[in-house]
Write a structure and sequence with these properties.
heterodimer, A: four-stranded antiparallel beta sheet, 58% strand, B: six-stranded mixed beta sheet, four-stranded antiparallel beta sheet, globular
């Protein structure tokens, strides 16, 4: 899994509660990404980061925020979870120095919002 | 929970057969393409990539073919094994942007 860990691996929460997912990498990569994966939609980019405190929105960023206060951690927060955010969330990194290099993925977090 | 494999086109083959998985990409300006394999309950795993200045690239038991004229990418797996059963999807990158665009995937089922 390219030195990437995600926590928690599984979470069940209730609508309206805040949720934070953590992505941790051990190889000092500059670029980190958060995706969600849903049947019929494939992988969709939520947010990405190109350095500490440098982040940008992806295709499906509404309802999500991110933070990157240190190189190794990229946090995804759902401020007030909704049932439509039930999904599998993947973190990815780029090993190269360019954002257009191959992305490598973590093991995923399965989130269920009741 | 619902599997990512639902709603996907499926290719069923016998062990030992060669498999061909196809992908149509969307952006004629894309200049880098990647194939990923995703097993149930796991994250996508890099298989092979190809730049747009190439039309073929070979790896171990896998070959990727790129036809830019019709915006088509294929992944050929030789001597398919049960362990190859997974969802396969392609991704394209246009170097003018910083993100990948992923296809929805094909499920490969290999029978012993």
């Amino acid at each position: 899994d390219a030195g990437i860990t995600q926590s928690p691996r599984h979470k069940v929460t209730e609508t309206g509660t805040p949720v934070t997912l953590r992505c941790h990498q051990t190889e000092n990569h500059r670029y980190m990404y958060w995706y969600r994966q849903d049947p019929g939609h494939g992988l969709r980019l939520i947010h990405y980061s190109y350095g500490v405190k440098d982040t940008d929105k992806g295709e499906v960023s509404d309802g999500y925020s991110v933070s990157r206060s240190k190189t190794e951690d990229f946090l995804l927060t759902l401020e007030s979870a909704t049932s439509s955010q039930t999904s599998v969330y993947f973190c990815a990194i780029t090993r190269g120095t360019a954002s257009t290099d191959t992305q490598y993925f973590g093991p995923g977090t399965r989130l269920t919002v009741l | 929970g619902e599997s990512v494999g639902l709603h996907l086109p499926t290719l069923s083959v016998q062990e030992g057969d060669n498999s061909i998985i196809n992908c149509a990409y969307s952006n004629s300006a894309s200049d880098y393409f990647i194939w990923y394999k995703q097993e149930s309950g796991k994250g996508p795993q890099f298989i092979i990539d190809i730049r747009s200045n190439m039309d073929k690239r070979q790896g171990q038991r896998v070959t990727v073919l790129l036809n830019k004229t019709v915006k088509h990418l294929s992944l050929q797996i030789a001597a398919t094994q049960p362990g190859d059963s997974a969802v396969y999807f392609c991704a394209e990158i246009f170097s003018g942007y910083s993100t990948l665009t992923f296809g929805k995937g094909t499920m490969l089922l290999v029978s012993p």
